[in-house]
Amino acid sequence: MNPKVPIRKLVAEVLAELERLNYAKNTCNQYRRFYNRLITFADSIGETMYSEDLGNKYLRMHHNFDLENYTTFSHRTFRGQARCIRVLGDYQLHGAIMRRKTTKVPYERTPQFAEALEGYQKECVQRNYSEQGMRTRIYRVRLFIDYLDDCGLASLSLLTAQHLSDYTRTIAGYHKKSISAILTTLRSFLKFLYLKGYHEKDLSDDVPKLKQPHCPKIPSAWKPEDVKRVLEAVDRGNPNGKRDYAILLMVARLGMRVQDIKELKLTNLNWAARNIEIVQHKTKRTVNYPILDDIGWAIIDYLKNGRPQTKSPHLFVRHHAPFETFGPHANLHNIIAKYTRLAGIKLRTGAAQGMHSLRHTLASVLLEQETPLPVISEILGHMNTMSTSVYLKIDLEGLRKCALDPDEVFQYDDI
């Protein structure tokens, strides 16, 4: 695309494209109002052609920020304004609107790609990808074929390495992990196209490779006293509180994953043996958790005095009609957020605050108690100890024992 385009022409094309992509009417109007103000600003300084520099000048003049100092943690008002400017830049460079999220309108497959996309989705099912993994994988492929459609590609057989190169440039500003995941998905999709005869050449080798060393970030763990305060903040005198208390205990004391707790059924409770036997959603392995005294009494209290009358086989259900299990994508974050707020706990900026962080805390406590890594791995339901070893980074006492004495090291310099 021509980097120098009259701003009025560029805006008209972008607004027309937004309507073609079925963006909501209110959203299109928001873009239109923003661009009208941008055009007025450009006229006031004698600019007729659009450039990123012009967009940044407008943001600095009227909103006190620009794309260089903007972050994803900025206020949502800034996010909308930054998005408007980035849409202009994307369309100017690539001739397409790079959608970060699908629109509310149900996704409609373009005719030329429908069969291949449906076939790839079936392939993912056959490979036994997890539901969440398959959802994100298909989402990335949809964004890719949306881009190809916007570029006017009539058939996947016409796909070239140049298309891949151009698309890769559109994700250059993403986080390294996001880029790596997108490129991995592209290779998988292109390999599928070749093996199933949609393309005569295997283009997966033409996708650039990004060296991504295995360096997981340090897990966020709570202070044990903060976990206690959260549990004490739960009002166990009402049905919601009885349910939430039992759920929080099972995560904090047993390290159970949220998905496993949501799928937990009454038949999984073996009161005679005092254990919970389930097949983990993530690993597909059968595991047993002990019904500790506090957890057992919390579950009994919920079953007798909190759980609504329902035919659902699941232990925990929603407390508003219909009284069924939680939705497949519910992460129960609202539960822990509610009691964190009631407990008056202030977490550091950027720290994980969800249910999964309670698993990190359990791992931290077990390490402090010098529990062997394989045992922690078994408790947390990891497939191997490599997944568990990341928690060694938060074992401060253990790390102190690994520290070298500089004087002792220097003694051997002359040897």
UniProtKB/TrEMBL annotation:
Query: Which PROSITE patterns does the entry link to?
Result: CB, TYR_RECOMBINASE
Which part of the chain is the Tyr recombinase domain? 217-404
Name one matching Pfam family: Phage_integrase
Keyword annotations for this protein? DNA integration, DNA recombination, DNA-binding
- Known function: Site-specific tyrosine recombinase, which acts by catalyzing the cutting and rejoining of the recombining DNA molecules.
Q: Which family does it belong to?
A: Belongs to the 'phage' integrase family.
Name this polypeptide is given: Site-specific recombinase XerD
